[in-house]
Amino acid sequence: MDSITDMRHIVADARCGRGPSSAYLEKLERHGFVVLEPDDEGSVSLEDLMAPLGVPVSYGFGTQLIQEQRPNTENSQFRTGAIPMHVDGHLNANPVSYIGLECLEAPYEGGETLVANSRAFFAMAPDDLVETLREIKVEYWSKVSGFYAERPDGNPVVAPVQVDPVTGEDALCVGVDYPEDPSRNFGAAVVGYSKEQNLALFEKLADVLSRPEVMYTHKWRVGQVLIMDNRRVVHGRAEYPVDSPRKVLRISVA
Ligand SMILES: O=C(O)CCC(=O)C(=O)O
After folding, report:
1. Which residue's CA is the closest to the ligand 1 atom numbered 7?
2. Which of 25, 80, 84, 224 has its CA 20 to 30 A from that of 237?
3. How far is CA 105 from CA 43, 47, 191, 196, 249, in A?
4. What is the pTM of this model?
């Protein structure tokens, strides 16, 4: 694994200011994600930062989501538990190209956003895992109502290896249902696999995705923005304490 592939090296360059002359678009294209820090020059709004990347994507809630704890929710997005690694948009009628997150309130502990790079994943993953991924398809289903804009064509069935639109390389396009969590807001299963085969595959995937060479763990500070190319990185969230604040604004575009 070289320094262009290893996330531990990439993160240093995948950062810039959030002011009007920010180089974020170039860094996003280079790395598939970028972290923008509050800037003395002034901070461009998340809406304006996302505008050159596409048109806001509509979900059941509209185009802007406040991610925070909500009482009595059925949706794991609004609880404090971990969210396993996934790409966005499988269950939404409208696909997602880029995801922008802005920290409005930072957790005092945990709640990091996890970003795993496809290029690093394919450099690290054992050959037999990659071979398997090329042969299978994964079905996804929603367990919540009102969150996604409902797809007219039923549950999506998606090949986990796709083509990176920027580099033409392999891109991992998957949602991991591991560890098994019945209260998660979506389910995923490999078509034709038994429950045991499914868990074994997701465990292997989750293991490679969580290696430090593959995954960047972003600890939030208020005013930071993280933009991810949903076609080039997989993301998730670490759990955080129920008595901790955490408020993140999300705008996705396509
Ligand atoms: O809250 C986060 O950091 C990410 C949440 C997430 O996984 C998502 O918005 O799809």
Report:
1. 236
2. 25
3. 16, 18, 40, 40, 10
4. 0.96
